[in-house]
Amino acid sequence: MTSSERAGTGFRFSDPVLAELVQGGLDEVEELLRAVVRSEFHPVMETSLHLVEAGGKRIRPLFTILSAQFGSTWDRVNVVKAAAVVELTHLATLYHDDVMDEATMRRGAESANAKWDNSIAILTGDYLFAHASALVADLGTGAARIIAETFSELVTGQMRETMGPREGEDPVAHYLTTIAEKTGSLIATAARFGAMFSDVTPEQVEALRAYGEVIGAAFQISDDVIDIASPSEESGKTPGTDLREGVKTLPMLYALEEEPGSRLATLLGGPVEDDAEVLEALELLRVSNGLARARKTLDEYADRARELLHVLPRGTARDALESVSEYVVTRTR
Where are the coiled-coil regions (predicted)? Predict the structure, then answer.
């Protein structure tokens, strides 16, 4: 049986029936996303649809729909709503992130803050959060509490990243906590929601939640490695973006531990704006033990994710989740 892979997500589906079921659910999520942002006030609808229609991999809805497939029955209507809730929340954070990062592009299109202005981008993000809250109310108080707690984690993670580690705090531990909150928390909720609206056991719900958190953080570490190790013609991204922005990612933090006072440490002291220095820093990072340690940490996260799946029944849905654990590692090689 041939395997169907969703480009850029790591999900491989060996069962065409499962692949069709997931795609059908995603199509319903797309319809719902467009429906809930409709407004009589055309400008707010235009700005809200800006990122909805820009596409994206819809990784979080994928986790929600797939996590609902481990029981014998699932509530399709509520799973689709839950998937839309997590995607609306994700999209809202992107509008806010672009303002904080002074971004000019998002998903191949002009970012909302560049196309309009910061105020419009912030208000649009708030509008999407409002609709996510309204939609989750249909799912009950338990789901509403979970998304509120997740939102709190997202904000905490962003503040943690913005403020940086406190004096005496381990920078690596600070970073790993930050990515668990900023990236892992919403993917964890996406997987948890799907499981909640099926007939799986509480133990399996928790396993899927934990898997989402670990694999979400693994995706970020994987991106960290790619930003340094992969040529642009392979990754489709310009290497050294984090260096230029002064963001200290995991390979850099490990390198700073390993080589204090070195030329590399000097370059990593702040944003690297000169093209020649960016290339120099990339060359030093690529041969540093910091990059090797980051790859090792990524392997450990992927292994942890796979271990968490052992309480789930074997089958094509579990195979699809395991394929993501493999993908976060192989995409960096």
Answer: none
